[in-house]
Amino acid sequence: MISEKTNQQTLVYLFLFGFLFLGLQFLLSVKTSFISDSLTKAAQIESAKEWNDSILYPAENLDPDKKMHPILFVIANQGKLKSVFSEVFARIYSVLFYFIPIQWIMFTNGIFLVLASYLLYRIGKIPVPVSLLIFIASVVFSQVLDISEVPFSIFWISLSYSLWSRGLEQKSPVLISIAIFLMVLGSFLRLEILILSCLIYGLSFLFLYFQKRFFEILFITIAFIIPVLLFFLWNQYEYGHFLGIRYHFNYSITESQSIGSRLYQLQKILFTSFTEPGLKIGFFLYSPYFLYVLYIFRKQFKTKNFQEPNLFHLMILIIYPILVGLSAPNDGITITSRYTLFAIFPGIFLIANQWQNVKTNKLFLFLVICSILINVLLLKVSKESFKMIRKTNSIYSSLKSDLWIFYDRNISGTAGLSLLSQPSISFQDFENKELRTSLFSRIRNEKINQIYIFDFSKTTPNAFMHLKRGVELNSDEFVKVLHEEGFQCKTYEEKSWIGYRLCLN
């Protein structure tokens, strides 16, 4: 039984963590974090609040083919505009936080982290300091600051994985079945959870097989197959691919990789890259103390005791990151460990098993401190990034017009939440007379008289400044082609790393 004193300490830890996490979000100004992924997810949630099955698009009348939406990860799918991220996540958040303005929703992330830690404590018997420490000293922390499905996914896996671990300890097929069923449902949030679910099912099969409980194997198989079929059928109906829109999007733009390329990608996701410029923060580089955990439990394999829960946690900690690394569509850019995020759960249970020993171990504590320092560095980078986004948003807010045209989605994403209300499109084919004339014909039909056109600055250093356009925004040729469409363009201007022109009909 858990003592009353322990319960009180637990509540204090959870309250302090939730309070400090919220304070950190305010300090970092995460309200201005809407760019790229988070901007797409914000558009999803706002669309779901209005019960739209297509992403909000204020300039939809100008784009009948749905090819010019200004938000990066919004694509046309089966005649509708869809985000490549989880639709279930957006629906859940639109219901839970219907009355909360979108720019405040990320401040609920701490609630799910606190609930996740509490579930690990109540069901999985994991001391709260252990789970909170791993959240702070792992890739989790850098992924839960802005709007994302990660906090809710962490909460969901904390529930299902804790039930599974309890089922192993109690040798309860019922608990194992419930855990598998719930975990597979988590695949609607992130596709990597399907890989984890398959691994959990396979290990549960072995667990019951060595007990010769064959009827129970049938029971857990049904609990696995039903939600898997539901997941496949829903994706096929909704997106036209049984693995969903994210898989379809990633692999439709990614060339097939050789075995060598897959292995190199695995290296980057697990550790880092030794040849590419720029640091790649893989899972075991981000949290090297998990390597120490593997060292502590190295003798576990020799026992080959398939009734010992720690053996299953150990196998997941090793196998899951490898499977994810080999199947990932890319390396995850800088934070390559984000694809293997759910590998923290077997690590949490293994560390909890040895907590009394490792919490005073100097090597373990040193490795944990290294992980925390990585997060401190990333927080500093995030703070500067959010500051720059806030500055950029203020530039756009002073340039309201009938229509914004962006040269590509990399720059349109910098406009943030303005894209949810300001009519905007992404178009750069000004040298293509047929496409240009077609677009401006619709613009005139909509009686649009004032347009701002944006591109990256050609003088202020930025990552995209050397992109070559068919017709450069700052050129005389641009003024000429817009004149052919009936628009008179003002002088080209730049603010920060944004270049723009005002054109009037």
Automatic annotation (TrEMBL):
Residues passing through the membrane, by range? 12-30, 95-120, 132-157, 177-210, 217-234, 278-297, 309-326, 332-351, 363-381
What protein am I looking at?
A: Glycosyltransferase RgtA/B/C/D-like domain-containing protein
Q: Which UniProt keywords apply?
A: Membrane, Transmembrane, Transmembrane helix
* Superkingdom of origin: Bacteria
